[in-house]
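Appendix C reproduces, verbatim, an entry submitted by the partner laboratory led by Prof. M.T., so that reviewers can inspect both the input and the predicted structure.
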Amino acid sequence: MSNAQDYIKGRGAQRNVSNRFDANSHEFRDDFLNYCAAEGDDFEERKTTTIDTFAKTIVNKVVSPDVGMEYSLNPYQGCEHGCIYCYARNSHEYWGYSAGLDFEQKILVKRNAVELLEKKLRSKSWDAVPIVLSGNTDCYQPIEKQLQITRKLLQTFLKYRHPVAIITKNALVQRDLDILKELAQDNLITVNLSITSLSEETRRILEPRTASIKKRLETIEKLAEANIPVSVMMAPIIPSINSHEIMPLVKEIANRGALSVGYTIVRLNGAIGGIFTDWIKKTMPDRAEKVLNQIENIHGGSLNDSRFGTRMKGEGEFANQVKQQFKIARKLYLKNRERKPLNCDLHEQYKDGQMKLF
């Protein structure tokens, strides 16, 4: 890693970028930066702050045909985990913030999430279909330890016997094993752990405020031992950074009890292209151009790819090699393991929060 003085430890993005929806933009003048350096002042606020919001709706219909979910629920917008490649960064611009450091430092909290979910599940027009927690940002990011909104949401899903899936990088999900066990008894839960690498050094610079690899592997074991269906997403695959780890990673998660594995290939849409480029030139200057060129080759000559059907898996020789490696890995290490569809049949009996006798 570069020892450049301008590298911000503990953060993914290294700067804020202009919001495409803002009419105005700003920049720091050299004389101001020199003054701050001479005075020993930090010219930007580095602390994470939370901002209370009160949403009108909480369950979102997913219209994209290639993300594998119909509905999602995100109790938080922005994510302190700071994963440099995160596609959700662009969504922070709709709130008037930058997709860069703002995304990691300004976390919007949906204070009425539980009430809105309960209203949705009680609606006569709602027919049960799995709702995914963290379709956009991680429901177990650090602030969840204090606020416990995700835990209360899970209690609501249990109360109404409604199917729910979780995607997370955080071992904090272990805190809620008591609720997850009850949901699992009726096949109402599946957990997807996101693990991008087996290397702690790679994890630290790609995903600076996520749980360690050791804790995530331990979480797979704990969930599997509790008979809670757990799978792994190796997402994203980034050429020359973690693309060599497919076989050993699938073997490791299989040994820990995972039922299946999925993947995506990195894509750098919108503001993320500039954020990632700035980051990799500071963290991996020796291979930055190689990695960027390889990403462009996967996506038709561009870092950006919004085409349904190709954006998640890429195209070309590298994409095909990744596809074949996962095919072989599943056959070798995950053969005959089954992840059952979640149970959507119980909810109608619990529309009012308790079982109907007649």
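The beta strands are 49-53, 59-61, 71-73, 76-77, 106-110, 131-133, 164-168, 189-194, 230-237, 261-265. Additional entries are available on request from the coordinating office.
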